[in-house]
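dude i think i finally got it to work??
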Amino acid sequence: MRRRALWRVPLLLLAAVAYLSAGGRASADTASEAIPDENSVVWTVEGEEIWRFPTTFQSEVQEGADRLRERVDRGFPLSSLRVVERDRQWSLVLGKETILQARSEHSGLLRLPSRAVALFWLSRLYEALGKEHADPLTAKHTLRGAHVARGTVSWYGGDSFVGRRFANGERYQGSELVAAAKSLPFGTLVRIRNLESGRTVVVRIVDRFMEHRGRILDVSKTAAEVLGFKNRGVAQVAVEVIGCVKKVGGH
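look at this
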């Protein structure tokens, strides 16, 4: 037991040093990896790891995982899986049901903002559910003729955009991980990697825009924050098409 405790502390301290050296902008990936396997509760969905929690959160993580599994069995539109703020607490919700509340303590010693933790969960769930539930008929859809493309992305959708409708009919609520593309079908999930910072995020295509000046996507403000280029306005990225998902699970 003593050896186990001693192993955990150095890893968390190293992660904290990395966080401080990055100017307090460590990614959610760093926080999850800071908790060793033997001291963590791992939340997996469709075989994909979503997050590692300190063992003190085992019961609430299990309850959240069970709620999500039940909803997958019944089926739901992927658009109903969102991150929202309720009573000053950021949560992962499915429709009106809270799946799991995000806490800064979930990231161990780093104590990332709860919003950052919840958004990371959403991105990872998009990837896990996208791989398992993508419509096989949409596998042919590409970006500029390829499943992986490089180019420039910009962002849109500030506070003044809240309440407006995207081209697919959904209303913008302020914390979506979404994007606009020229021709990819609505519901397509794409993984975006910032080539400079290495940060990644998975977004849903919900809107349209005309490609210009080499830009291949317009992402939401929230996605730009996760990728770390909101202040700059544009970023060089690699974009990979995962697949198109309209409905998850069900019979």
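DSSP finds five helices and 13 strands in the chain.
im so relieved honestly
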